[in-house]
Amino acid sequence: MRVTRQIEQLSKSQLTEIAHPALYGLDETHLVPFEQFLLTSATATAFKNMQQQAQSDGINIQICSAYRNFERQMAIWDGKAQGKRPLLDINNIPVDSANLTDEQLVDAILCWSALPGASRHHWGTDIDVFDANNISKAELQLVTAEYIDNGPCALLAQWLVDNAARFGFYLPYQPDQSGVSPEAWHISYYPESSLFLSQYRAESLRLLLSQAEITLQSALLKQLDKLVEHYVFYVASAPKSSNKYSNNLLEKPNL
Ligand SMILES: [Zn+2]
């Protein structure tokens, strides 16, 4: 198991209280390399199948972001909380954090960034995609305008709505169906991610964040249950998985 700096700070007895470290971005031994990314092997296989079908429909689905570990998510969080990274509102307008209380700053960051330990990108089942026929990864900003109307990824977005479920993928972040803002680019391999979500525990995240040296720690811990409810559990419902997907992933010792 590759350990992060944060985890090294946890005592052994505390670590054993986190039943499935992989759900919080603390373990990547269940993942396999795919291009320059890490995914669960079932997600990688399903994605490859979907990519081939899309290709024959004239759409070049490529990944721009996949697995991120706890430490990486915390660097993003700290950067925004400390004003070192731009903070944008729901309309992508820069927010001046100077006049915000800690609680308001937490909410502002969570508009576009996940709480460390609470990102679906920790799981290896969730990926951000774009249409490489129409835009390069370097140009891509991952904003809604790119995925609607005549945007470069609009065809891809519609193709996903029509076809993704056949390959085991769906969009967890949709208007009025999720605490996280709608993200037409974020897809999830639901046969596994639904299982992961059912095993996710706010108490494990509390243990982790109370040990990490994270900016805005006390504001986070004060409202953690509410945040987990809103940003982790409040997602669009996944299609039902067929029995062929009911493997024993969570029984693996490291997960
Ligand atoms: Zn995403």
Based on the structure given, which CATH architecture is correct?
2-Layer Sandwich
CATH class: Alpha Beta
Structural class: alpha+beta
Strand order of the largest sheet: 3-4-6-5
Q: Number of domains in the coordinates?
A: 1
Within the CATH hierarchy, at the fold level, what is the topology? Answer: Muramoyl-pentapeptide Carboxypeptidase, domain 2
What value does the average pLDDT take? 90
Bound molecule kinds, no repeats: zinc ion
Order of helix and strand elements from N to C terminus: HHEEHEHHEHEEHHHH
Question: Which consecutive residue ranges, at least 5 long each, have pLDDT under 50?
Answer: none
Helical proportion? 25-40%
For the sheet with most strands, the description reads: 4 strands, antiparallel
Radius of gyration (Å): 18 Å
Q: How far is the N terminus from the C terminus?
A: 10 Å
How many H/I helices? 10
Global outline: globular
By DSSP, the count of extended strands is 6
What percentage of amino acids are in beta strands? 5-15%
Characteristic terms for this protein:
two-stranded antiparallel ribbon; 255 residues; 10 helices; 36% helix; Muramoyl-pentapeptide Carboxypeptidase, domain 2; 6 strands; alpha+beta; binds zinc ion
Please, could you describe this protein's structure?
It is built from ten helices and six strands, in the order ααββαβααβαββαααα. It has 255 residues and is an alpha+beta fold. The chain has one domain: Muramoyl-pentapeptide Carboxypeptidase, domain 2. The strands form two sheets. A four-stranded antiparallel beta sheet has the order 3-4-6-5. Strands 1-2 form a two-stranded antiparallel ribbon. β1 and β2 form a beta hairpin. Bound molecules: zinc ion (ZN).
